[in-house]
Specification:
- Two copies of one chain form a homodimer.
- By secondary structure, the first copy, chain A, is α+β, with helices and mostly antiparallel strands.
- The first copy, chain A, folds into three domains: about 200 residues, Glycosyltransferase, CATH 1.50.10.100; about 130 residues, Alpha/alpha barrel (Glycosyltransferase), CATH 1.50.10; about 350 residues, Beta-galactosidase, Chain A, domain 5, CATH 2.70.98.
- Helix content of chain A is about 35%, strand content about 25%.
- In chain A, helix 3 crosses helix 4 and helix 5 crosses helix 7.
- The longest helix of chain A has 23 residues.
- The radius of gyration of chain A is 27 Å and the shape is elongated.
- Chains A and B meet through strand 12, strand 13 and strand 14 of A and strand 12, strand 13 and strand 14 of B.
């Protein structure tokens, strides 16, 4: 039955496809090589080329080593095989661009060693993955190898004899492709970023080998029955999601992105996933233009790249939502690749400004063109405006609302998260937000508890505290009810739900507004949040206004955290220092110390210092409310957590409550000039004037006795502002 | 009597001095102006000039304001008067260089307002200084004003009528100079950086006014009897030190620096003090070349500037020894001024490399020349080799030993402190050290507990925790005996003592060595430390070897802290997590929590991560020793302390003991590539082989079974290294 399926597909495909093979043609093309050889190299291309030459020459000098697979990530054999595919890919490009045969010979000899050994290697001895690889500990890394190496193979294909090609195809590439597909359907046939890598690997080598069976397998998946619907992968995600019957590359595009190009796992995983998407798509575009892959789903792949670029702070670092290691940025090689290919397709000049931040290009026709345009186009920051990125395959599972003002170093950003759960890497952070002033986190998202690839920390894998702290609600900037995480911290329930965006309204240039509701995180508690990015000439920077409403018929403890992670400068409440006490025994509270507690009056105001800037939060409060100054690090025997500070505004025995705050970034300080500029906030108080079913009106008072009333329509996000002095 | 003294001095001076006055001639000279006007401006000069124009034009646009003095530092009137003198100084230079009269007019009108108001102002209402100022809260700031304004006055002198000059001299400058000298002898007549400012202020305005009485007062001090020898200033330092009878500028040079140019308070205070030293000296050189001020004490002032530049990390940030706010660097305006003047005198081309780091120059002939040389000379890092800077007026009160390797970003530095106490700003840190890898603190000096000029933190003054934590021994990297600070934390005793350097030996290029002894910090405990900066091809970076010997007839608790301030990655001891407990009630221990405790075996090894680098300490230990993983922040109700981590190696009931450690900086990690390079140390163990009265021999074993024996002569610091495999 499976055989007939393949034959049918093959027949259909062949009839559509009649291009002759020419090498190179997978990513770098013969026309591209001609252009690069005939024109003067622009500086960035020259720099990238020089850096590649240094790396590969060094690798050649060190000698080829293809060791028997043994180690986990970080260990010798893992890193050596990783180096091999990276340097082979670069060497292939160098052979084409410089014409120096030593690069082709290096790739050839390395490939021959792999071909000689591959069949003798058993499955990787570690056996710690749901899909153990052969060269690496997981099929995912094996796929990385094949995605890169297929480019090297394409680049030196003409350098090889027919016999050498046959030997490599039969001894190495075909068995390798079969291994990560037919022999590991639980890896290859999912709708998941792992499988995208698998599809790209099999498809790209198939395109080089002109092997239609492999190409079709990559595009449309294996036809198998999958009954083990409750099986999970190493991250705790379901291997097969209900209702997702399709597999293969087109299915990945169908399911991985929302129509806005948002990737439900968030930008940290998207930047990694974009690489196989874009590389395989470019290869398809080059070899199978009839498939019009970049037009698929209204040009979704390029949209995906842009959505990824928008989810960054002023330095191009990704918002660390869901599981994400902080500091990952658009400078990553995978994003350079994705952007280069997206530019090649779209020719969007704004991508040139993002490429300037990357300061690196691909060694192909796209990289050459970008490096050329960087010289030609005027210097501008990468412009990112306010944008809402809808989540879910059909764009109906909440969204990520990004409110923005300014650009370059003056970029001020609020990231408001009312998305779906984000699969196995999702956090319990419904309606949470984070604020950036340039690249400084004013209120932070903790990110993941993980040091990727660092062996000392459990081999670089997720640490236990990722689950017990980083994923928990209290580790974010959103409401915690009765000291329990959203959905009780249960993935199975969380994954069935998503928040709902109500409005994302940027009509009023003085106050971009986003509103969302979450009905399912806590049974019987409705949570609504409205965020305004408010601009007024009285303030040098935008002010974030935050209206968080919780409604319940029952009384609860409401904990509202502010992850300021800085040094407290002053506050309007009386602090009683305490011996640090662990705040609880579950849902993240077991990792928090209370360092000080205070009784709130009519308002809470705290001024802090971080990264040479001054910030102030001003909140409405009621007598009886508590303020807890807390710090992370309790029950952390392996010192896996940072010791960051947070403030928790606690309402006891509350049913209906509003948390209303203004967050100002207002001052700077340099330890060289020792001169503070505007160390104090300008806002004196913030109050709810009226809150009805249809609108909420707030009043902000400045210390200079200015008053503003902002009335926000709860359905449309229309903001009316009245100023009085 | 006083009168006769002045007349005599005046007579002597006049006979030597017969130069006619020409304006400008104080700092910027007429010849300098001619040169600047006639030549093409090099880029850095152009940039500095443009920045000055922007600042002054903005100030002119804002309008002149000379408010009635009222505020402390950070408050409006303080900042406005500070702006006034800064912008007047710049405006004076701009008038000379650009010839635009609006700048002269701005200075003139501002000065006229001061002159109109000065006599009506009482002493500053704050009354919080031992020497309350008139325009500012302390005479020190008043002196700053006069040092800067005298330059502005000199620059526009020709623009003024004779009547205007007379009015300003009589209504403003002479009374101002008298106020900070005659009316505040406790400020003016000390040997102290405050008085250096006072001397420079009075002397510089005297030179502009051609007022010999003021000039002599500045050079030789007031002749008064000072009986209040126990009076203290606001920092707790004695106003008059025993045996220091002299006063005035020459006395400051005599007493402030050691023959090596080391300033006993350390570089943070030196960078501030160098400004009046160098400016006044330059003014004297220009106006009174007969005094040969730059030849005084064998060219000490230029030596002082160089000593200051040497006390920096790779980014030019000063070592935060004694009271010092971290981040202060050679980019400070005062150091730009000092370096520019030192270059003008010495023409030392290496200063050009330091000037590149500063990226700013003075708007005078020296700045012009430096900016020109920056274009001409090849790009090189500022070279700083190993150097010992002797402390004490006569260079016999210990020293600061700086062991160095590499330059630029590869600069690796150990700062070993066996100096005197450093006056009122000194810390109880005998034989302490700090390590820098580039600009990253491998083992930190905490610095001061202070946010300079930041009003929220007690008006920017020293915080209580500066005394209770930052000055205490446990806040440093040196031995604490019986949980008490050196000298019991008593300034009066500490100030009478200093450590003794035994050797500073850089003969062996593989191991620069410094050795010192401290006999007085603890009665009955002799402390000796030898530091080696060891270079071997087996390691990518130098390894710090630390041999700390404590000898006593009695048993003590020895606490040996490692201020690593990073994230623990792994360790060779079993940690028992504990509820944080306050470690004591005095000598800084009241600010420490123990977060975990462990029993030591034969060795202690800990690997940590900080600023994207990996470090490892490896120490010899004995069963029975304890390891305490601690953190700062206990008893800190105002959140004045950072929450930095430290490790304490504790020996209980010890009399004679050696703390032997190796500190490696061995690896890096980028969150963009996610690739750790050498995350683990190469050293497996370190041991004392033999320790006699004359030498100590240690053995270092690598994980790859290499062995090295290093034998150090305890008198000479000669290091013999034997390697075996």
């Amino acid at each position: 039955m499976r055989k007939i399926y393949y034959i049918l597909i093959a027949l259909v495909s062949t009839s559509l496809w009649s291009c002759a093979q020419s090498y190179p043609g997978l990513i770098l093309t013969t026309q591209g090589v001609e252009k690069i050889k005939s024109e003067v190299h622009p500086p960035l291309f020259k720099k990238t080329l020089q850096s590649a030459i240094e790396k590969v020459d060094h690798a050649i000098l060190e000698g080829i080593d293809v060791p028997t697979p043994k180690d986990m990530a970080g260990g010798y054999t893992h890193e050596q095989h990783k180096n091999n595919y990276k340097y082979m890919q670069l060497a292939g490009a160098l052979y084409q661009i410089n014409g120096d045969k030593k690069y082709a010979e290096y790739v050839k000899q390395t490939l021959m060693q792999y071909a000689d050994k591959f069949s003798s290697w058993p499955v990787h001895p570690t056996n710690r993955s749901y899909a153990t690889g052969k060269v690496f500990w997981q099929c995912l890394n094996d796929s990385n190898w094949l995605v890169f190496t297929s480019q090297a193979y394409d680049a030196i294909h003409e350098y090889l004899t027919k016999e050498e090609v046959e030997y490599l195809d039969q001894q190495l590439f075909r068995p390798y492709a079969d291994f990560i597909s037919i022999e590991n359907p639980q890896f290859f046939n999912r709708v998941h970023n792992h499988s995208t890598w698998g599809n790209a690997a099999v498809g790209m080598i198939g395109l080089v080998m002109n092997d239609e069976e492999l190409i079709n397998r990559a595009l449309y998946g294996l036809k198998i029955n999958t009954d083990n619907s409750l099986a999970k992968d190493n991250d705790g995600g379901f291997i097969y999601e209900k209702g997702k019957a399709k597999a293969g590359f087109f299915a990945q595009i169908d399911y991985a992105f929302s129509p806005d190009g948002y990737y439900t796992e968030g930008p940290y995983y998207q930047r990694y996933a974009m690489l196989p998407f874009m590389l395989f798509a470019q290869a398809i575009e080059n070899k199978r233009p009839d498939l019009k892959i970049f037009e698929y789903r209204e040009g979704l792949l390029v949209k995906g790249v842009k959505a990824l670029l928008y989810q960054t702070n002023a330095s191009g670092e990704f918002f660390p939502i869901n599981d994400a290691q902080k500091g990952m940025s658009i400078k990553a090689g995978s994003v350079v690749t994705a952007l280069n290919i997206a530019y090649g397709i779209s020719k969007d000049p704004d991508l040139i400004n993002a490429a300037r931040l990357q300061n690196s290009v691909l060694l192909d026709q796209n990289g050459f063109e970008i490096a050329t345009q960087i010289e030609k186009l005027p210097l501008q920051p990468f412009e990112k405006s306010s944008i809402e990125l809808k989540d879910g395959k059909d764009g109906d599972e909440g969204a990520l609302g990004i409110l923005r003002s300014g650009s370059g170093k003056d970029e001020f950003t609020v990231v408001f998260k009312y998305t779906g759960q984000g699969l196995g890497h999702g956090h319990y952070d419904k309606l949470s937000y984070a604020i950036y002033d340039g690249d400084v986190e004013v209120l932070q998202d903790y990110g993941a508890a993980r040091w990727v690839n660092i062996d000392q920390k459990e081999g670089g894998r997720y640490l236990p505290e990722n689950k017990t702290w980083a994923k928990q609600t209290i580790a974010h900037n959103t409401l915690v009810v009765d000291k329990k995480s959203h959905f009780g911290g249960k993935y199975e329930i969380a994954n069935l739900n998503h928040s709902e965006g109500i409005f994302f309204n940027t009509d009023n240039p003085k106050a971009h507004a986003a509103g969302a509701v979450e009905l399912n995180a806590y049974a019987g508690v409705e949570m609504r949040r409205i965020i305004l990015l408010w601009k007024d000439d009285h303030f040098d920077k935008p002010v974030v206004l935050d209206i968080f409403e919780a409604v319940s018929d029952e009384e609860h403890i409401y904990d509202f955290p502010y992850q300021f992670a800085g040094q407290i400068m002053s506050q309007n409440f009386t602090v009683e220092g305490v011996q640090p006490e662990v705040m609880g025994d579950a849902h993240g509270y077991q990792h928090l110390y209370s360092e000080a507690i205070a009784e709130a009056g009519e308002s809470i105001q705290m001024n802090w210092f971080k990264d040479n800037k001054f910030y102030t939060m001003t909140s409405e409060s009621k007598p009886g409310d508590n303020i807890i100054l807390g710090r992370m690090g309790a029950n952390d025997p392996d010192f896996n957590l940072r010791r960051d500070a947070l403030l928790i505004h606690r309402k006891n025995n509350a049913s209906k409550a509003i948390f209303l705050s203004a967050i100002e970034s207002h001052g700077t300080y340099s330890p060289v000039t020792e001169r503070p500029i505007q160390p104090y906030s300008k806002i004196k108080s913030i109050e709810t004037v009226e809150n009805t079913a249809t609108s909420v009106e707030i009043e902000v008072k400045s210390k200079s006795e200015k008053k503003w009333r902002l009335k926000i329509n709860k359905q449309t996000g229309k903001v009316e502002i009245k100023e009085r002095t």
